[in-house]
Structures are given as structure tokens and as C-alpha cells.
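Minutes, project check-in
Item: structure for the 404-residue chain
Input as provided by the requester:
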Amino acid sequence: MGDLIDEHAEEPAQLETLHQGRPIGVSRMVSVKGAAEHFRYYAGWVTKLYGETAPTSFPNVLQYTKREPVGVCALITPWNFPLMIASWKIAPALACGNPVIVKPAEQTPMTTVRLVRLCQEAGILDGVVNLLTGGPKAGSALVEHPGVDKVSFTGSTETGRAIVHASTGNLKRVSLELGGKAPSIVLPDADLGAAVAGCLQGALLNNGQVRATYTRFLVHRSLADEFAERCATAAGQMRLGPGNAEATDLGQLVTAEHRAHVDALVRSGVDEGAALVTGGSSADLPGYFYRPTVFTGVRDDMRIAREEFFGPVLAVLPFDEEDEAVTRANDTEYGLAAVWTWDVSAAHRVAGRVRAGTVYINMPNPVDAAAPWGGYGSSGWGREMGSGAIDLYTEVKSVWTSLT
């Protein structure tokens, strides 16, 4: 699968950009490259699904465990990174011996269609990787079906909650990768240039349409004004345009409906008294473009500080003390975060105190097949990638044998 994805790399990259609107470079280097990486990584796990033996308190008894497939897995993927997210679900599910039904978002199905065809070309048997296209009704049917043993869903927190309720019929296993409102904490000794560049990259990848997007910038008061000014200047210089144009920095949002959602939240920020430094409007281009936006004067109780934008909007909130920054970073239902500082002790101290499943220190927000990915609270259940995905797609059977 990894070789086939590489061999046909330009086709899914172009499809991803056509469907989703992102710059073609992101489709090539993140989506397609990441998809191939996930299949190669989990191919290595196939021969490493070991059980354990335990020294129990019972004499003359052998107790061991073995990992077995969960069963039929419904994999429901979002529209923001359809190819890569489908791959990071399909690959570990297959490695663990599970048949899957993949249901892509109705807005962006084509790269998943192509991926499933590549599964056939790779020699995966008919009926092992199945494709179901459609909207919410198709997803609901999968979640409620008694023949489905597990649901893996990436998408909105609201839909994730609905899936939990709908899955109770046969108490199927559920893993969820949901929303985020990730704080990025910039401590007073941070390299401001690196923090601005990294925060912008972490905030504006895929035009902000990423669950781990940095959207709340808790910046030490001594740096806050300059940080906001630098962010606004750099964001204002980004080139908006068609995703298939090589010079484009930011593409368009996925639909007119989603752009209206982003704009409504921006308008709420203005109405609630935040200061709009740059952006804050649609771009005068054909399509669903929205200018990268920076707010200052943001309070923790404002909608723009609490609700997920899933768009190119940055909110700068000054703080005075480290304890205050941690407390405010944790004042959210979500659990993803970042820290910027050259003080190693402070970096790990804050990372340990922030309630988040994934914390980045002095860097943007990548994912990698080898590293577990997920969040606390309303950011989801379970960990995808790394060894965590093996736990999602296997059952552990405990076997006891009398030796007398």
C-alpha cells in the first residue's frame, strides 16, 4: 500500500486539493506522504502483536493473554484530511486482523474512493476493506448496526456525543478524535521570532481546519503586544489563492456554510469587545476564502476564546504569571496544547500541568505514525497512532490453564 500510494502520489494529492481547497504542497507533503507512512509503519506491527504471561498468586497455573481482532470496524472520517485520516484508521485495523467499513465525509469522498481501490490493487481480499459513501444517515446506520463491533470517528464533538449514545445498542467499542481549542502558552523567555513563526504554522495549517490548531495564544504580558503585531503582519502577507497554484499559502474553507460559521464567530468577537488587528472578512476571490484574522483584547469568557473556529483565527490573551497561564489554559472542555520557552524546566513543568493528551514544546503541531495522538475531555477518547492504535483495534483475551 505504501508503494502504491507513492506510485500514484500526484493523483490523490490533486484530488485532495480539488475537494478540500488546501494548498497542493500540503496535500503532497502531509496527506499523501502521511498516508504512505501509516501503512508502512503498521505493516511492521503485524508480527509484533504479542500477549503476556503473568505471575499470578495461584500455584501450578499458567496464565497468559493474547490479542485478537475486535471485529467489524466502522471508520468514519472527516473532510479536513480525508486521505491521511482514513489511512491512520485503516492501517492499524488491518494490521490487527479486522475487516473495515470506511465512511468518508460527504464533502470529500474521492480520495477515500481512490484509497480503497488501491487496497484492491495491493491484493487485500474482497470484503476486508469496504466503502460506504453518504451523509449523516449513512454514518448513523453504521453506528447503530448490531453487526458493527467498533466505531472509530474523527469529527465534531457534537457528533461524537451522538455516536456514544447511538452505539449503546450492542455496547460496541468507540474511539473518538474530536474538537480542540488548543492554547499556545508563550512564556517570557521564549524566542519571539520562533514562537510567532511556529504559532502561525500551527494555527493556519489547512487554513485552520485542523483539530490541533493553535487558536488561544496565552502570551506573557511583556511580549503580548509585539507578538500580536508580528502575527498580524505575517498573516496579512500570506497569499490566498487556488490550492493548485504553487504560490498559494492559504487556500479556501471547505464550504460556504463553514465560512459563514467562521465569520459568525468573528463577528461575535467584535460584538463582545475584542480588537480586530487584521483580517476579519471574506477575501474578494471566487470561492470560500477567509482572510487570516488576529484579535487582541480577548477575554476568557468570549466565544472566540471558548468555541472551536476550525478556521484561520488567532486570539491573543496576555497573562502575568505561569500559574495563571496554566489555570486559564485548562479552563476549557478540550485537551490539546503547546508551550513556547527556552527554559527547559518551565517547559516540562507546564507541559505536565496542562490537562492535554498532546502537548508540543517549541514547535508546530505535526502527527506521526509512531507517536500516540489524542486529547483529554471533549477532544476525544483513546489514542490513535503508535502502539495506542493497537489497543483500539484488538481485544485482550485472558487464558488460564491448570498445570496439575
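Outcome recorded: Residues 149 and 171 are 8 Å apart (CA to CA).
No further action items on this chain.
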